Amino acid sequence: MKTSIVFLLCISVFPGFSQGRVVREDETGFAECNVFFPGQVPPEGFTEPFHVKICQQYNKEPRFATLYSTKDKIPLYSAFKFTKPAQSEEENWLVEPQVSFFIPGNLR
């Protein structure tokens, strides 16, 4: 119970942590993240109750879809659309803070 309260407090104080959502079972495919699959149809055959569909967002826009196994604690697959970025002199990397110290020269 105490952990749940701390988690809810963190989400309300740091809303950036909640950019993504678990897709309900009654929704078709990955909902708004279906656009990341050919023909907007995600792979089939992953029907175990511990397989969770997640539509992840960045800046409030769908960024990629992930099928996550809560049993094995790993993503089974992720899907996104690659678009070549515009030419820019500045390079911005999206790096998880807890692994940024592994990057030579700390590219952030």
Automatic annotation (TrEMBL):
The keyword Signal applies. InterPro entries: DNA/RNA_non-sp_Endonuclease_sf, ENDOD1, His-Me_finger_sf. Residues 1-20 form the signal peptide. Keywords: Signal. It comes from the Eukaryota. This is Uncharacterized protein. It comes from Malurus cyaneus samueli.
